[in-house]
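Issue 218. Parser rejects a valid record. Input:
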Amino acid sequence: MIPKKLAEGVYEVGAIDWNVRDFHGYSTDLGSTYNAYLIVDEKIALIDTVKKEFTGQLLEKVSQIVDPAKIDVVISNHTEMDHSGGLPAVMEVIGKDKPIYCSKMGLKNLRRHFPAGLNLQEVADGQELSLGKRTLQFLETRMIHWPDSMFSYLKEEQILFSSDGFGQHYAGPERFDDEVGEAIMWHAKKYFANILWPFAPLIQKLLDKVMGMNLPIKMICPDHGIIWRQDPSKIINAYVEWCKQQPEDSALVIYDTMWHSTEAMAEQIVAGLWEVGVKAQPMHARSVHRSDIITAAFDAKALIVGSPTLNNGIFPTLADVLTYLKGLKPKNKLGAAFGSYGWSGEAPKMVHQMLADMSLEMVEEPLRVEFVPERETLESCRDFGRRVGQAIKKD
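Output the parser choked on:
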């Protein structure tokens, strides 16, 4: 692999993971990248490392620029193992006594991840480190998305090394936003919805803080995915909008089905939503990965969840999606539940309660249909959709 030159003396030296398809329950259909950056100045700095098994790739890339042993300092913007797993092996090569600069929480976390012996140096928010002709400034950015997160800003080049902020799980021959175009925004939104959504209020405050500093930003270099060089403001503005958690007037009907009865209900509910002019789509939980469902759910005003009853409980795929959704702490959404059953029919009531516990505003009582819906009950499903649609338009 060939390192990418970003500016004079600044390079991307991380790794591409073409084969990863699951990242903590997140579907990485195209793979991902573990970006790391090298700054060659009077002092040579390495910003973040890579997942442990890709350490050789990083060192080989660095070797094409300088002897890795000449690296003077390492910056750890984020302790998570996809960015620090290679750190011990890297330090063996460059010298275990070399300083590793990190946030206060980063120091604590790195000590708990790795054996003693690393020369960890805590930096304060706003602290600067001279590399010679250029200066790195550290910005504490807790909870993007770990408590140890920080950004590093290369002042003279106006480059922001943003850790997991502004990233995407995307692997491809392209390395820059202008090489991928608009398509990269879906990957960025999926990343935000699945990883950063619960921290949106904190991220908004951090964005306000960073923007309030009026730092000129020519380039944003995240730890995953492409580098924003053509229009860094595009992803910043997108984050500002996403942090507001203001969904569009649309509905997502998430369901699974055993013998197509709950599916038939879902189809009629979607038809009812369409009838009142609300954009809606069904999403079969066994056909669509949970992380793609969440990406669609992020934009929707109403989440309408349908589950057949299995063994007196919620169908497993829906239980999975709801558990995943709960951890993301959705805001400003309406909810409703439905489902078919054969005997006791607990699932719609349980789904209703789970959505209510997530603070969704429940606009309908659970809709239940015994066995196969007939013409009249299908019409009641369509009415259900119409009523939820009207609630969306009123809200």
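Fixed in the parser; the record now loads. The chain has 13 helices and 24 strands.
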